[in-house]
Amino acid sequence: MSDLDLLTQSLARSVKHWRAVRGFTLDVLAARAGVSRGMLIQIEQARTNPSLGTVVKIGDALGVSITTLLDYEQGPNVRIIPAGQAVRLWHTDAGSYNRLLAGTEAPGPLEMWDWRLMPGESSPSDPHPAGTTELLHVTAGELTLTVDGVEHHVPAGASVHFEANVPHTYGNTGEAPMEMVMAVSVPPVS
Asked: Which of 39, 54, 109, 139 has the fewest CB atoms within 10 Å, measured from its CB?
């Protein structure tokens, strides 16, 4: 079985599990996530590999991290994630990517990401739930961060944080690859 098949099956189990824990019907989760009921059915039946944006919306609606969606079995208090187990959820042919390095529930979802954007590439993100905060630290190149239509340039060595409940885009308008580490904190579902 391929890694993609294992990921698809884990996501199917987790979405069903967390939907039951939250007491959400398919229709309720679809409405909260802004995802069609049909897409949720395909995900829960492991018949599709949804986009990163769709997985983020479902995680936000359920109030759990992407890490939790990909593996809802809870481990010990200390959990080491080997480098080879970081999950790459998005990539381009030019070499841009993001990797989910680690995540936990504390008290809401908390995720740590490794990003690389090649020159001229960008990745848009839909608004997250109110109270979501993102922390970014640029390690190489320069990030062009657009938050609610306003562009911000973040050079290597600098950090930035912002409320992510508005549309935002991570971009590289420079001539060298941009690399950053990002943490995302989502408030728990009330």
From this structure: 139
What is the per-residue pLDDT across 93-121, written as a single tens digit (0 to 9) for each?
999 988 777 666 667 788 889 999 999 99
Tokens for 153? Answer: 């340039």
Compute CA distances 153 → 5, 120, 168, whole Å.
38, 14, 13
Three-class secondary structure of residue 172 per DSSP = coil
- Give the Cα separation of 69 and 40 in Å (integer): 13
Ramachandran quadrant class, 154 (left: phi over 0; alpha: psi -120 to 50; beta: rest): beta
User: d(Cα 110, Cα 87) in Å, to the nearest integer?
Assistant: 15
Coil, strand or helix: which one is 133? strand
What are the φ/ψ torsions at residue 128 (nearest 5 degrees)?
Answer: -95, 175
CB within 8 A of 162, min separation 6: which ones?
Answer: 133, 134, 145, 147, 168
SS3 content of the chain, % helix, strand, coil (to 5): 30, 35, 35
- Please tell me whether the overall predicted TM-score, pTM, comes out greater than 0.70 for this model: no
∠ CA 3-78-139 to the nearest 5 degrees? Answer: 70
Encode pLDDT of 81-96 as tens digits: 666 777 777 889 999 9
Distances in Å between the Cα of 18 and the Cα atoms of 109, 160, 171, 190 are 13, 32, 33, 14
Let me know: does 6 contact 50? Beta carbons within 8 Å: no
